[in-house]
C-alpha cells in the first residue's frame, strides 16, 4: 500500500454515511410536518376568503357546501340576537382535525 495516498478509508466513509443517515432520519419527519402545516395555512386562507364572501352576500342559504380539490368547506349562516348575521366555515385539514372559523356582520 502506498503511504502517501490521500483519500478516505473505508471506516471514514461508513461513519460519514451513518451520520448522514442519522441526520436524515431526524429531519425527514420535521420536513413533512412543515409541508403539511403549509398546506393547512393555505386551507385556512381559502376558508377566510369564503367567509368574507359569504358575509357580504345578500341572499345566502342557511347551509352551503364548497368543494376545493380534496377539501370540502361547509358554510353555516344564521341570524343571532341584535340583528347580527353569523357565518361559520367548517372543514377538515390535512392532519385530520376539524377546524371552524366564524365571522359576524350587521344586516
UniProtKB/TrEMBL annotation:
Main subcellular localization, coarse class? other
Task: Name the gene that codes for it.
Answer: comGE
Give a yes or no for keyword Amino-acid biosynthesis in this entry: no
Organism of origin is Parageobacillus caldoxylosilyticus NBRC 107762
What InterPro entries would the database entry show?
A: ComGE-like, N_methyl_site
One GO term of the biological process aspect: establishment of competence for transformation
Under the cellular component aspect of Gene Ontology, which terms does the record hold? cell surface
List the top taxonomic levels of the source: Bacteria, Bacillati, Bacillota, Bacilli, Bacillales
Q: Spell out the protein name for this chain.
A: ComG operon protein 5
User: What is the residue range of the signal peptide feature?
Assistant: none
Lineage: superkingdom: Bacteria
**UniProt subcellular location:** Cell surface
Q: Where are the transmembrane segments?
A: none
Which UniProt keywords are listed? Competence
Amino acid at each position: 500500500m502506498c503511504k502517501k495516498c490521500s483519500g478516505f478509508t473505508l471506516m471514514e466513509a461508513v461513519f460519514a454515511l451513518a451520520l448522514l443517515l442519522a441526520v436524515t432520519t431526524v429531519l425527514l419527519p420535521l420536513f413533512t410536518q412543515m409541508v403539511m402545516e403549509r398546506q393547512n395555512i393555505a386551507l385556512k386562507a381559502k376558508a377566510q376568503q369564503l367567509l368574507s364572501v359569504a358575509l357580504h352576500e345578500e341572499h345566502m342559504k342557511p347551509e352551503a357546501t364548497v368543494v376545493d380539490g380534496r377539501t370540502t368547506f361547509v358554510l353555516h349562516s344564521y341570524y343571532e340576537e341584535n340583528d347580527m348575521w353569523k357565518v361559520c366555515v367548517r372543514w377538515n385539514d390535512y392532519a385530520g382535525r376539524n377546524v371552524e372559523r366564524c365571522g359576524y356582520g350587521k344586516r
